Amino acid sequence: MEVVASLFDDVKRMNKRQFIYQVLSFGMIVSSALMIWKGLMVVTGSESPIVVVLSGSMEPAFHRGDLLFLTNYPEEPVRVGEIVVFKVEGRDIPIVHRVLKLHEKENGTIKFLTKGDNNSVDDRGLYAPGQLWLTKDDVVGRARGFLPYVGMVTIMMNEYPNFKIGVLACLAFYVLIHRE
After folding, report:
1. Any catalytic annotation for residue 32?
2. How far apart are CA 165 and CA 157, in angstroms?
């Protein structure tokens, strides 16, 4: 609690000009991060160019906490063996699994079935009720690269709210002690 009280004391001691400078600096950092994210969306063609693996269903290819880099170019065909990230209607969190089978209809549309490498059955139980296949519209992106375990910080912040508060408090403290 002393750290929080110290932070509030530091803020109280700032003159208006210093406070406005800190707020504008923070705003520039946030807007820069948003611009980078939007730029990545445009370059990769994916609504989520970076995702974190949340379960062990893709082991040994990917482990929980791995950070995946995605692309989603519409002209690229889906292939068996490819690792895709897809969203299912009614579920908020995208799923990272491998394409198991392709099903091409006479009209040229292609549907596919996925499965986690570490799972014993395909993903039909994860799809929306009545859905037996995925389409390209369900795909958020295709895995192109990864950084092992870098996403564990994100997982810890979601699973342990006090950890998130601690990280944010450390960042706030860092910003306040490094002001000009």
Report:
1. no
2. 8
pTM of the model: 0.78
Q: Residue 67 in contact with residue 151, Cβ under 8 Å?
A: yes
What whole-number distance in Å separates Cα of residue 73 and Cα of residue 130? 28
Q: Which of 6, 25, 63, 97 is catalytic?
A: 97
Bridge partners (DSSP) of residue 134 are 112
| Cα→Cα distances 84→42, 58, 78, 149, 169, Å | 18, 11, 9, 19, 36
For this structure, is 123 an active site residue? Answer: yes
Q: Are 113 and 124 in contact (CB under 8 A)?
A: yes
Q: Where are the beta strands (DSSP E) in the chain?
A: 50-52, 67-71, 83-86, 95-104, 110-115, 139-147
pLDDT in tens, 41-76: 999 999 999 999 999 999 999 999 999 999 999 899
For residue 107, give the nearest of 76, 74, 135 by alpha carbon. Answer: 135
Q: Which helix (H) or strand (E) holds 19?
A: helix 16-44
Q: Which residue has tokens 């063609």?
A: 45
Q: Which pLDDT score, from 0 to 100, does residue 69 have?
A: 97
Catalytic annotation present for 57: yes
84-117: pLDDT as tens digits: 999 999 888 999 999 999 998 888 889 999 999 9
Residue of 9, 48, 55, 57 marked catalytic: 57
Check residue 134 and report its DSSP letter: B
